[in-house]
Amino acid sequence: MASLDDVVIGRRREVELVVAALDADRHVLLEGPPGTGKSTLLR
């Protein structure tokens, strides 16, 4: 399995925040323009 750093480049802080929210059983809403990696981040 690929590391998140290999799949989502330049978004370390966002990855950390999403993982922390999911670990805390919280909801996550990602907003942004098309093509910025929102779906890739959640996969």
Short description:
The chain has one domain (4-42).
**Largest sheet properties:** none
pLDDT averaged residue by residue: 86
* Residue fraction in strands: under 5%
Query: What fraction, in percent, of the residue positions are helical?
Result: 40-55%
Number of strands: 0
Radius of gyration: 10 Å
Work out the helix count. Answer: 3
Spans of at least 5 consecutive residues whose pLDDT stays below 50 are none
List the helices and strands and how they pair.
Blueprint: H1 4-7, H2 12-23, H3 38-42
Explain what you see.
The chain has 43 residues and is mainly α. It has one domain. It is 49% helix and 0% strand. The protein is built from three helices and no strands. The two termini are 12 Å apart. The mean pLDDT is 86.
Key structural traits:
43 residues; mainly alpha; 3 helices
